[in-house]
Amino acid sequence: MSLQLLRYCHQTSTDQSEGGKNVQWTKLSERSVYENRWFRVNLADVELPDGRHLDHYLIRLRPVAVATAVNEADEVLMLWRHRFITDSWGWELAAGVVEDGEDVESAAAREMEEETGWRPGPLRHLLTVEPSNGLTDARHHLYWAERATYTGPPEDAFESSRRAWVPLKQIPDMITRGEIPAANMAAGLLMLHHLRLG
Q1: Where are the domains of the chain?
Q2: Mean of the per-residue pLDDT values of the chain
Q3: Strand 148-150 vs strand 118-120: parallel, antiparallel, or unpaired?
Q4: Measured between alpha carbons, how far apart are the two ends of the chain, in Å?
């Protein structure tokens, strides 16, 4: 390792703020204020670096599993769907929560088949993202396969208006145009674009 790189690593590990020290919020306590089978809304007592306290609401969520496949033509399997919360349409990948006792990869395969009618081949982990870590502990685990087998109409056809194989080369422009609004999906698709097309 070069001397210049060593100096950079030392500087970035020690100079975390203008004062040369780490700035960190500290959770002192946390209690649940609402809970159902999908999520918990909690209230935390948080101490700021200057000693002040604040009440901070947060949402505890189950892990989310996401899966898609890329075919030999470098097309990616996607869903066109409406999200009523934001009242927006966009392209997404099949996704859903991991059920109790289910491993993440199995959940990703299950969700893909239920929502698209395509069963993925062997899945590869693509990336894990925290889409809104200032509010929730949600982690989205994205997987992909190099092949998929059509098993019939999707069991969860109500999830989307249509399913399609979309050319990977179009993904960056689609994101720029706002056609892939979900940050987790955009991140995964850009990673796939990089892996497959460079």
Answers
A1: 26-61, 64-197
A2: 90
A3: antiparallel
A4: 28
Q: Tell me which DSSP letter residue 168 carries.
A: G
Residue type, 10: H
Torsion angle of C-alpha atoms 11, 16, 17, 19, degrees rounded to 10? -60
Distance CA 148, CA 119 (A): 5
Fold of the domain spanning 64-197: Nucleoside Triphosphate Pyrophosphohydrolase (3.90.79)
How does pLDDT run across 158-191, given as a tens digit for each residue? 999 999 999 999 999 999 999 999 999 999 999 9
User: Does the CA dihedral 169-86-129-123 come out positive or negative?
Assistant: negative
Q: What is the pLDDT of residue 108?
A: 98
Q: Which two tokens stand for residue 14?
A: 């020690």
DSSP 70: B
Give the predicted TM-score (pTM) of the model: 0.83
